[in-house]
Amino acid sequence: MTATVTPLSLGEFHEFRVESVDFLYLVPSGGIFAVSPAGRQAILLLREQPLAADELLAALIDRGYAKDDAEEAIRELFEARAIRDPRGHQDLPQEPVADFPLQSLVLNLTNQCNLSCQYCYEFGEDKVATPDGKPKFMSETVAKASVDHLLASSQGRRAIHITFFGGETLMNFPLLKWVVHYALGKAKEAGQYLDFSLTTNGTLLSPEIIDFLVEHSIGVTVSMDGPKEMHDALRVYANGKGSYDILAPKVKSLIQKHNTRPIAARVTLTQQVTSVKEIFHHLRNEFGFAEVGFAPVTAAPKRLYTIENNNMDRIFEQFKELAVEYRDWAIAGRMHGFSNVSDTLAELHAGINKSHPCGAGLGLVGVGPSGDIAPCHRFVDSDAHALGNVMEGGLDKGKQKEFLDKGHIGAKFDCHSCFARPLCAGGCHHEAFVRYGDTGHPNLHFCDWIRGWTDLCLNIYGEIAVKNPAFLDQFEQRKPLQ
Q1: How far apart are CA 475 and CA 465, in angstroms?
Q2: Domain boundaries defined on the chain
Q3: Are residues 380 and 129 in contact, defined by beta-carbon separation less than 8 angstroms?
Q4: Sign of the CA dihedral running 415, 417, 422, 423
Q5: How far apart (Å, rounded) are the C-alpha atoms in residues 159 and 52?
Q6: Using CA atoms, how far apart are residues 77 and 84, in angstroms rounded to an integer?
Q7: Which end of the chain, C or N, has fewer beta carbons within 10 A?
Q8: Among 262, 176, 273, which residue's Cα sits nearest to residue 224?
Q9: At CA 226, angle to CA 225 and CA 227, rounded to 5?
């Protein structure tokens, strides 16, 4: 390589420095690369002008680097594609194969809910569902067809997953129990490992339900927005009464008894609920949730609960403070519980380079009570986004391809110069539809936020890698919460 006379130039990467160690986040591949002093100098030289490899080598030797060290630095940078010749290297995310096997199924057991949360994407002003004339509760017939479709469409997968969802999931608990028994039997016959999770608002938890969840090691995520005043601001019953006092003792009982899987809380941030640190410490320390994750409300810009820019800045500052706490705990070998950081670190550790924002319509689909297949739970019962029906031939490959083509990072030209695209891939399909009317539109209103968050997590990852690398081993098997 050092004999080439073609000029070398810099590839695409994002630089960060931790504890006197220079790192590169290699954007086309999603890898993280520690740079030697000679490599750092090579980057500085190429930033001034392109140089042939032998010219670069000579320049490094002139600056006091041993020939072997200089050659190794150039070779490592070239192999990592941090520097490149005019031929370049295209590391574009792959197109999904035609028969990409399913891995996760989201069963919306009901489209009904006992709460009337004002910001709900399923029932609120921004809903995309068209449930009129469709069943309100899933039947055993539809559930059986859904499970059979997952098993038939997941061939080659050693492990598969079913998430129970709603509406409020536990309003159809008898069907949930039936599905667990049926699906476990069918998965055993197929030689596959199957696990379960569910999302609930917590108000319908009972000793019987908790015992069943414990017995079958079912993962649970509770939708909860923090202390009473914040939670009750928007998570209310139809009569306007808050739900905190109802769910609090039930959730505490769940956490106390369910020790086979970590119990997580998911917080929806709105214009009225932005006290991230207070919410986190209430749910983590007072309730005992193993993990707490936050997501801004998915809503059109003019809704009263949509977060304004100044509050997004305030939220980011609190995210940053919690992330620093997480870093300090990790260096000390302790689990912090801020799942937004854990999920991002897991993707960085795996070298994720996404073709699509998530597995929606790819390795994951949602099924509604009618049997309609949707890209994910957020599009269930939407005629405009249906990808087939489990009772009528299953997944429509043509509609699936149309959805995936639209959401592919290659079609999002605004994203092509962004260093955060390996993790973001343009952002949530549902958010894109609500904001821009197009599932394939980049979430441009979140761009600065995502870039800031990615840079922050890169620095945290680098510092943990330097000070306590063994902590990162846990991310080998981590699956981000759905």
Answers
A1: 12
A2: 7-84, 104-327
A3: yes
A4: negative
A5: 49
A6: 8
A7: N
A8: 273
A9: 135
| Size of the chain, expressed as the number of residues it contains | 482
Amino acid identity at 77: L
State the Rg of the chain over Cα. 24
Q: What is the pLDDT of residues 312-338, one digit of tens each?
A: 999 999 999 999 999 999 999 999 999
Query: Cα–Cα distance between 235 and 416 in angstroms, integer?
Result: 39
Q: pLDDT under 70 in the chain at which residues?
A: 1-5, 86-98, 123, 477-482
User: pLDDT tens digit string along 208-249?
Assistant: 999 999 999 999 999 999 999 999 999 999 999 999 999 999
Specify whether the CB–CB gap between 63 and 53 falls below 8 A.
no
Separation of first and last alpha carbons in the chain: 45
| C-beta neighbour count of 75 within 10 angstroms | 14
The two three-digit tokens of residue 21, written as one number? 């160690």
- Measuring CA to CA, how many Å separate 1 from each of 53, 72, 84, 106, 108? 7, 11, 11, 50, 56
Q: Structurally, what CATH architecture does the domain formed by 7-84 represent?
A: Alpha-Beta Complex (3.90)
Q: Give, in words, the CATH class of 104-327.
A: alpha beta
- The CA distance from 65 to 135, in Å, is 73
Measured between alpha carbons, how far is 351 from 274 in angstroms, rounded to an integer?
A: 31
